[in-house]
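To: structure desk
From: M.T.
Subject: fold request, one chain
Message: Could you run this one when you get a chance? Sequence is below, nothing fancy, just the single chain.
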Amino acid sequence: MEFVLFLFGAILSWLITHIYYRQSSKTAPEWAQPLIDSLPATQPSQDELLKLVQNHVNHNSIIESGSNSDGEWFRYGNGDQVCKGQFEVGDENEVRIPFPSEFATEPSLDLSGNVNRIKTKRATQRELLVELNSGCVAESISEFQYQARGHWKDPHSQ
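Reply: Done. Structure tokens follow.
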């Protein structure tokens, strides 16, 4: 009986591992997708692959970066921009956090910190707008970190 249970557990473990592996390895990480999209349909030679990687690195390298009292930013040759920063919230209902560098279009946004205090969040080209839950009374100051990703120029106008 123990052997049957062991065998059943081993088979179940093997199935879960292989199904999960197949599901989790179907897509490439977001940062690698532009490089993967530039690959030819047939297997490239070593020289072709080296040229593709060099072109990708040259095209997507940081061309400008900086920081100010609002945070730090990184601008890439392909038109992408990343802004990072942090802010603190006490008993406010809404906060407006200016980005350290303006975007050409509305960026996507990631927030970390005491996120259960956040009711809504949205980003404009110039700032991060956060509305806080009125039911959450902060006994102390909450710290948040953000990362905004967007474009500082039109990525199609190289």
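Reply (cont.): The chain has a mean pLDDT of 82. Let me know if you need anything else for the meeting.
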